[in-house]
Amino acid sequence: MSIRLKIISALFHKTYITMRKVIISLLVLLATCTACTEKEVAKHVIIIGLDGWGSYSMEEAKVPFIRQCMKEGSYTLYKRTIRPSVSGPNWAAQMNGTPLESTGITNNDPTPSFKPLFLTEHNAQPTFFHLMRQQYPKAETGIICEWGDFLNYADTLCVNYFKRIFEPSKNPESIVLESSKYIKEKKPVLCFIHIDAMDHAGHSFGRGTPEYYQTFEHVDGQIKQIVDAIKEAGIYDDSVIILTSDHGHEGKSHGGDSLNEIETPFVIWGKGIQKGKIIDETMIQYDVAATVARILHLETPQSWRGVPMNVFK
User: What predicted TM-score, i.e. pTM, was given to this entire model?
Assistant: First the structure.
């Protein structure tokens, strides 16, 4: 090779190496900038869980407030339970983003049926409350529930406040009063409110009975009162609100595989959420946790299997 060709070859090689380094640096810078500019969709997430709310109920129910929320945000009536269609595994999955094959939570018992694949320092599953405490330790988080066993799956060591409503059938408005008081006083970043009335009506009177629908209509009004409290707290415009469920009913029971038991609604609206969207993606209970994590910009652990729904603007 002539000296001239050697010089040209050397210059070309040097230029190639330099350009390669520049391109790599630009890609790294772009990725860094993207990561830096990502932030939470909203500063507050309020989840209202309706125990025993099956999607079948939406065909006949006179629930004007919930229907208004569906129009203001995104929703699906085809969110699937995990098996079996009972409360424990399904509320757990919505908080820990993980199927029961990993968690061992197969029923309503307070302890897993078999050894979980992964546990936190609290000997519990890494729920979104645990992620909040790890990543945003100063954030206010809380739980108000009517079913006491709900607390078994939430890791209460990670929340600032939790309260169980005892004998809710005798004190049906306590859940609204306690939730509204907490929201207005503390303005939580993440709050889960569990209402048990519809499940109680399903077990007592049966799916699709007049009593079931009367209870549902009453719960619709309770949801409106809680949302009014969010507005009075001054955080509504920077909040995302979620309505979700654990299972439906077949007759007076649940736990089986009928569509009446395993199809449940999911409604989401608020800051940064698409309006008037019917979610056409498949959705399983643990996708609720992933969607909450996306809203609050939480880094999720490898054990999670949920994915956030495509509901964001």
Answer: 0.88
CA torsion 111→117→122→126, rounded to 10°? -100
Q: What tens digit of pLDDT does each residue of 78-121 get?
A: 999 999 999 999 999 999 999 999 999 999 998 999 999 999 99
- 19 by Cβ neighbours in 10 Å (0-12 / 13-18 / 19+) ranks as exposed
Query: In the 8-state DSSP scheme, what is residue 155?
Result: -
Domain housing 205: 40-295
Please check whether residues 25 and 153 belong to one and the same domain: no
29 and 46 share a domain? no
Tokens of 225: 């009162």
Beta bridge partners of 242: 47, 268
Residues 8 and 55 in one domain: no
Secondary structure letter of residue 312 according to DSSP = B
- Looking at the structure of the chain, the number of domains it has is 2
How would DSSP label each residue in the chain?
--HHHHHHHHHHHHHHHHHHHHHHHHHHHHHHHHHHH---S-SEEEEEEETT--GGGGGT---HHHHHHHHHSEEEEEEEPPSS-SHHHHHHHHHH---HHHH---SS-SS-SS--S---TTSS---HHHHHHHH-TT--EEEEESSGGGGGGT-GGG-SEEEE-SSTTTSTTHHHHHHHHHHHHH--SEEEEEE-HHHHHHHHH-TT-HHHHHHHHHHHHHHHHHHHHHHHTT-GGGEEEEEEES---BTTB--S--HHHHEEEEEEEETTB-SSEEP-S--BTHHHHHHHHHHTTPPPPTT------S-B-
Q: Say whether pLDDT at 10 is over 90.
A: no
Token code pair at residue 240:
């995302």
Distance CA 132, CA 235 (A): 19
The Cα–Cα gap between 45 and 73 comes to: 14
Are the C-beta atoms of 273 and 239 separated by less than 8 Å? no
- Domain assignment present for residue 2? The answer is yes
